[in-house]
From TrEMBL:
InterPro entries cross-referenced by the UniProt entry: Metal_Hydrolase (IPR032466), Pept_M19 (IPR008257)
CDD domains, alphabetized: rDP_like (cd01301)
UniProt keyword annotations, A-Z: Dipeptidase, Hydrolase, Protease
GO MF term set: dipeptidase activity
Keyword Manganese: no
A Pfam family: Peptidase_M19
EC number: 3.4.13.19
Name used for this protein in its record: Dipeptidase
Coiled-coil blocks: none
Length: 315
């Protein structure tokens, strides 16, 4: 069954390996959870690749770090692999041929462009289709879940969300503080949670509480479950596929059967769900889901729900 995965950190991992002079090969490096061989084996139809900058990178170096990861995307991921097709517009999902894998650029944290909206517009032009305003820390746009003050969007953050709306780009709520989440819900035309689970089942600040989940579904927005055990089982580094399915089942009980997708966070996590350790194992999850849900529902979770909820506009 074809998979759309809305979050991985392969670009960051490859960048860090280059900076250590130990470059990882996207083709088949076993140290990459989302290498090409694994994507093919796992029947991944589209993989989203995040641009992510560590918060300790000096402010005047963040844009350079972002450009390095974009260069890796264009050279290592796309340039050396003709079967990888860059998706820059939402309708291009339908243009994928058998044997091709779509690749989508996203941004995790506005730190990359700071307060320079010209850089943000450049990211749109380079094909970024989803933007999360923060990682866990605070920045000039908003507070993340790790910022104790729990502030919401700044005026700059609201302006970025409005620009996302104008460009038909998702605003990703997965790492936002609770107040910033609600501010986004007031402003964003295209909210998404690219990799978040259920707070009621696992009390981690990265997960969404019932009020947030309800608000997302009322807005016809997608929540993509994440494969990180920390966000599946409270204060545990282990998880089973059955544990992950509990989160999917909970979201279904809240009325979200048509609003659930997959956002693995592969290459950004250090522990794994058993039998779901890399992109090659996606079908293990699909087979387990088929024991609990109808084939139509599982096809929705795997890819179709996302395809039905993409922004419809094209500029």
């Amino acid at each position: 069954m074809k998979i759309i995965d809305t979050h991985c950190d392969a670009l960051f991992k490859i960048q860090q390996s280059r900076r250590r002079n130990e470059p990882l090969n996207f083709t088949n490096s076993p140290l990459l959870n989302t290498n090409l061989a694994f994507l093919k084996k796992g029947q991944v139809q589209v993989q989203f690749f995040a641009i992510f900058i560590m918060p300790d990178v000096p402010f005047d170096e963040k844009w350079q770090h972002a450009l390095e990861q974009i260069d890796i995307f264009y050279t290592d991921v796309l340039g050396n692999h003709p079967e990888m097709k860059h998706i820059k517009k939402w309708e291009e999902f339908e243009q994928l041929k058998d044997g091709e894998i779509g690749a989508v650029l996203t941004l995790e944290g506005a730190d990359a462009f700071g307060n320079d909206l010209a850089k943000l517009r450049m990211l749109y032009q380079l094909g970024v289709l989803s933007i999360g305003l923060t990682w866990n820390n605070a920045n000039l746009c908003a507070d993340g879940v790790g910022e104790p003050r729990g502030g919401g969007l700044t005026e700059l953050g609201k302006e970025v969300v409005l620009l996302n709306n104008q460009h038909g780009v998702f605003t990703d709520v997965s790492h936002l503080s609770i107040q910033a989440f609600w501010d986004v819900m007031e402003t964003a035309e295209y909210p998404i949670a690219s990799h978040s689970n259920v707070y009621e089942l696992c009390q981690h600040p990265r997960n969404l509480n019932d009020a947030q989940i309800k608000a997302m579904f009322e807005r016809d927005a997608m929540i993509h479950v994440v494969f990180c055990p920390y966000f599946i089982n409270h204060r545990r580094t282990d998880a089973s596929i059955s544990d992950l399915i509990k989160h999917i089942d909970y979201l279904c009980e809240m009325g979200g059967v048509r609003h659930i997708g997959l956002g693995s966070d592969f290459d950004g996590i250090a522990s794994y769900v058993t039998d779901l350790e890399d992109a090659s194992k996606h079908q293990n999850l699909i087979n387990a889901l088929l024991k609990h849900f109808t084939e139509d529902e599982v096809k929705g979770f795997a890819s179709r729900n996302f395809l039905n909820h993409r922004p419809s506009m094209t500029l």
